[in-house]
Amino acid sequence: MTDVLISGAGVAGPALAWWLRRHGFRPTVVERAPALRDGGYKVDVRGAALTVLDRMGLREQVRRHDTGMRLARFVDASGTQLATMDAALFGGREGDDVELMRGDLARLLVEATGDVEYLFGDSIAALDPAADGVDVTFAGGGRRRFDLVVGADGLHSTVRRLAFGPAAAYLRPLGHHIAICTVPAGFGEERVELMHPAPGRTVGVYRTAGAPDARALFLFPSPAEEPDHRDLPAQRAALAGAFGGAGWRVPELLAAADEAPDFYFAPMSQVRMDRWSAGRVGLVGDAGYGPSPASGQGTSLGLVGAYVLAASLAEAGGDPVAGFAAYERRMRPFVAANQRLAERNLKGMVLSSAAQIRFQTLMLRLMPRLPGRERMISRVTEPIRRAATAITLPDAPAAAA
Predict the structure, then answer these.
(1) Are the CB atoms for 177 and 267 separated by under 8 Å?
(2) Do 366 and 82 form a contact (C-beta atoms < 8 A)?
């Protein structure tokens, strides 16, 4: 039986473990965090990724965790409502598309993997490839050999750094940063996304149905000096500097962000690589081809990539080079289509001038009364739908291993 070590217990890692196990492999997942991470923002699952969940038998469980959001409400610096729109349209969702919290999806995937071995509170410190396997040294001091190693460990992937080199060579910045954190429930309206657009920066707050707290999101131009991804005080200082003088409830939200235990701060960057594998080491999800949060497709890419990678390795019959090559051939057009969404979406998420904000909110107010409304909505959602379905999935194995 082929032993595969997966680094990362987010979305792509457990999904890959599920499919590898079904194909007859023996996966192990290592995760730096001491336990499953429950935080995070809401994520969308659509198109081919919904088919993957169907084939895992998880579609209905995922749907039960839908956020239930109703409206997006835009407000000015004084809190006065500028416009509203349907939450599904705001998120580019239609039909069977699902929106849920990232932590809920990760937990469902981990629970579905059954007896897969998880090593929480540890990480990969070194990789030593050999002709017939990869010797892995763990940060906790252990050492084991695996037939394959796959990095599903996100934008700052350790596996990518060890196997391919420094992150700077593969990250393509989009010129903006994002910060996300939990804030007290009083900042949000239940099932409503509150958005405060200002020239060059945007703040959003929402609270899902029955949630005990709210989530805040900040989008802003990248700082001149990038704080280290492990330096939380420097990141919080950069956020405060970016939103100095902002109105609405932004000063209160910044104070809450200073206390948030799940504060997340990162550049809006895409991972662009010429190859996603080196011998017996490969990458899946954000580690290999993160499209950035601006695309709205990172979760779907992780689910589809996990499915395609497992199928390709199984079809290769134990030849990792052939398996990884088939995976790349199938996934690259799909990844490219979804990465193209990011720059298009970002233009509408952060507007550069007060005039653009006035025009956008005017169009939102007029849209329900304009002739051809459905055609206009279709023009908004069509690029997302086309990218989300831009792959033909290989057949699933007939039965679980």
Answers:
(1) yes
(2) no
Q: Residues of the chain whose pLDDT is less than 50? A: 400-401
Copy the structure tokens of residue 123. 């990480």
Is the CB of residue 210 less than 8 Å from the CB of residue 66? no
| 223: Cα separation from own chain's centroid | 22
Instruction: Say what the pLDDT of residue 376 is.
Output: 62
Pairing of strands 133-138, 143-146: antiparallel
The residue ranges of every structural domain in the chain are 3-68+96-170+270-348+384-388
Question: Which fold would CATH assign to domain 3-68+96-170+270-348+384-388?
Answer: FAD/NAD(P)-binding domain (3.50.50)
d(C-alpha 218, C-alpha 236), whole Å: 11
Alpha carbon distance 328, 303 (integer Å): 15
Encoded tokens for 308: 């395609």
Listing DSSP states for 156-194 in one string gives: T-HHHHHHH--GGGTEEEEEEEEEEEEEEGGGSBBTEEE
Residue 299, helix vs strand vs coil: helix
pLDDT 10s digits, 348-373: 899 989 999 999 888 888 777 767 66
For residue 30, the cross-strand partners are 7, 119
H/E element, 109? helix 102-112
How far apart CA 264 and CA 389 sit, in angstroms, is 30
User: CA 163, 166, 170, 174: dihedral to nearest 10 degrees?
Assistant: 150
Reference 383, options 353, 330, 326, 342; nearest CA is 342
**Residue 195 CB contacts under 8 Å (≥ 6 apart), including other chains:** 72, 73, 74, 75, 202, 203, 204
pLDDT digits (tens, 9 = 90+) for 75-103: 999 999 999 988 888 888 888 899 999 99
Q: Is the pTM of this model over 0.85?
A: yes
Nearest residue to 302 (alpha-carbon basis) of 57, 106, 34, 42: 106
